[in-house]
Design a protein that fits this description.
Elements: E1 10-12, E2 15-19, H1 20-27, E3 30-34, E4 39-44, E5 47-52, E6 57-60, E7 63-66, E8 72-74, E9 77-81, H2 82-88, E10 92-96, E11 101-105
Antiparallel strand pairs: 1-2, 2-9, 3-4, 4-5, 5-6, 6-7, 8-9, 10-11
């Protein structure tokens, strides 16, 4: 189904960023903000993704993964790379450059 973002996505260094809660809750996952470390834990079933503001690595199911760009905060919203969250949950992400549309294909468990 089509979903609209409640805060505008941004393209930074060729990567699309979206608010963490938007992408996480679209998948039905939960997000926990850890203010002391400025990090987020996103959980969907047995998949756990940990991201930290300003850090170009993520921890996905205990494995350290390099990110092309670090999460950041804009207007009190944590912005994260769309692809890393989506693909961590087993989705396929496709970019249509002509129409500026991102399609995420995800099969519900």
């Amino acid at each position: 189904h089509a979903t609209k973002v409640d805060a505008a996505p941004e393209i930074v260094a060729g990567r699309t960023f979206v608010p963490i809660r938007f992408i996480a809750e679209t998948f039905g996952s939960t997000v926990k903000w850890l203010p002391l470390t400025r990090s987020m834990t996103v959980t969907l079933g047995s998949t756990i993704v940990i991201l930290q503001i300003g850090n170009t690595t993520a921890v996905i199911n205990g494995n350290i993964v390099a990110l092309d760009a670090a999460p950041y905060i804009k207007k009190s919203r944590s912005m994260v790379p769309l692809r890393v969250i989506s693909e961590s949950f087993g989705s396929h992400v496709a970019w249509n450059a002509a129409e500026h549309v991102i399609t995420i294909t995800y099969l519900l468990p």
